[in-house]
Write a structure and sequence with these properties.
167 residues, mainly beta, five-stranded mixed beta sheet, binds zinc ion
């Protein structure tokens, strides 16, 4: 979604309602795949507060990913809020990293929402909070199978001990 802020850009106290959808491409982010089969809802507003535009929004929807432990496909709820400060290119700002500089009056809401998704998304997605994951030796799903290799040491320091006692 693109929004033209021209109506509130130089109008202290004015605000613009944001109510619609944003679409994200399927992606991989820090080792996690996200698939978006439907656009996400976005509700919020952009308000001109003494010449600075404050963008607040709430994004909700769902995505498909995989359990980090057992790799089973899972659906996750997406629900996050964000605040962004938008300023015109000729505004003096203390820290340019904290704001979005507007080169023109039109903003791409999808891009802003996506950047905030990436900073908000949980680092861990599990099929169940106590997912047992896969056996590191044989790859069996420990939620559904009891393989016999669980006793084997995964810790390499124990291998050293085992070798010592071999002869
Ligand atoms: Zn799992
Ligand atoms: Zn196993």
């Amino acid at each position: 979604m693109e929004l033209d802020l021209i109506g509130i850009l130089n109008n202290n106290g004015a605000s613009l309602k944001v109510d619609g959808t944003v679409s994200f491409e399927n992606m991989e982010f820090s080792g996690t795949e996200y698939k978006f089969s439907a656009p996400l809802s976005i509700q919020g507003k952009i308000a001109n507060v003494s010449g600075v535009l404050e963008f607040t929004a709430h994004v909700t929807g769902s995505a498909d990913t995989f359990c980090d432990r057992c790799t089973k496909p899972i659906g996750i709820e997406i629900d996050y809020e964000f605040n962004e400060t938008l300023v015109q290119a000729d505004t003096e700002v203390e820290d340019a990293d904290d704001v979005i500089i507007l080169d023109e009056s039109v903003i791409n809401v999808d891009d802003i929402a996506l950047n905030n998704f990436l900073t908000n998304c949980s680092l861990q997605h599990l099929c169940t909070p106590d997912c047992k994951g896969l056996c590191q030796v044989c790859g069996a799903d420990k939620n559904t199978e009891n393989c016999s290799c669980e006793e084997k040491a995964v810790d390499p320091r124990l291998d050293v001990l085992n070798n010592l006692f071999k002869d």
